[in-house]
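Entry type: protein chain
Record version: 2
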Amino acid sequence: MHPDAFQWENQIMNRTPLLLLASLLLLSCRADRSWAQAAEGDVANGTVQRAYIVQDRFHEFGCILLSEDDSKITIEREGRIETYDKDKLIAIIRLIDVDEENGRIGIIYRRDGTLIEGEIIKDGFEEVVILIEGIHHQIPRLEVSHIELLPSFEETLARAREEIDPDDVEMRLELARWMVQNERLELARGELQDLLTRQVSPKATQLLELIEAKIALGESASDAPRPMRPKVDRTAGLPRPTLTADDVNTIRVFEIDFARPPKVTVHPETVEKLIRGHSENDLIPSDPVARDQLHALPDIDLVKLIFDVKARELYPEIVVETEPHSLNHFRTKVHNAWLIRNCATSGCHGGPNAGRLFLHRSNLNDPRTVYENLLILERLDLGGSGRLIDYENPQMSLLIQHALPRSESRIPHPEVKGFKPAFPSGGGRMKLQTMEFIRKMYSPRPQYPVEFVPPTQQAPLETPPPPRVPR
């Protein structure tokens, strides 16, 4: 290393001990990055251990681990017990037991190389759910490589105490500041009191006085009861989502992508209706034995057969249990990523002065809210200025053009007080992901058989519905 570089590095470390503390703890954690998840995966401890196995390029599945040694693993899935040679498996991903009340901060490593950090609240066979700034993001399991849990406050503190010299004033000061940031004032006070018994430090004395003042202020405030303020319902008087669970399933049926299929269920009665109602179709076997074998087809193949036969009366009987890829992309990369927090606020298109475009912002984790907002974007006609989603020319969608800075937009957002573009200059990644969402939706666009009129906060325009395109 060049001497100047070494000198510069030392200066940085001396000036920013907090960075040094963070680096030290991070390296300590990354040294055995799998310690948290591996600890969860101890089959010998008697607890039920869930896992997700990638067998080869074409087969992967969730299961329960029963036993394992250095060379073999025994699992249970779908009521069957199976044993595999570990060296013939691509990956054994041990799942984490978390839920809404017992989430863990962690990092999701996706198969495309991207990372997502937040609170992991579900690590399931079909999807992983991560909470980021209060918004639930659902990621299909097929897109997840693995999860790395980050240490809790207690675990980080224990590692810090192991690594920091008791007489290191700067590092212990940073440790105390970190405790304050995490609202552990009593711990921070004890840390500084112990430090001052070892070293003379004006900085530590000053910080201790500040912490004691905060503690005293908190105690005095807690002694004085405050009147309870009634909770304000900021959505009172605003339109409410009207879609039903059946509507949600219908939309999912029309967005099934057989290249990346969701989990679906077709009941035996539906197969019988298909056979009886479309027996003249060349795709339905005439031989009774072959007809009976239709029941053994995978559910997704039955859905494809229903589509190929054009048995549209059976579409409502297809149960789509997980979110199709295009809808998931809309939810995670558009709706929850930027649309709601930028455009559906109470002072914008989510409040009483929303105008013709109104977006729902309550119950954001409910598919009925997400899909109704999608229908609003699809069906609302704003007059001669264009459509919010232009499937033929995604770049010209008002959803994109109005999100750009006015100086860069071909169709600028109307001049309104307080307007801030949702996209940075050039559009950035959010623009690319929004265009990708538009391209991922089923084409040619179907008109979902869902009775729905976009809500509005002013008199609606008389606009004909778009032509229906059968699927």
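Comment: Residues 1-20, 22-46, 229-237, 459-467 have pLDDT under 50 and may be disordered.
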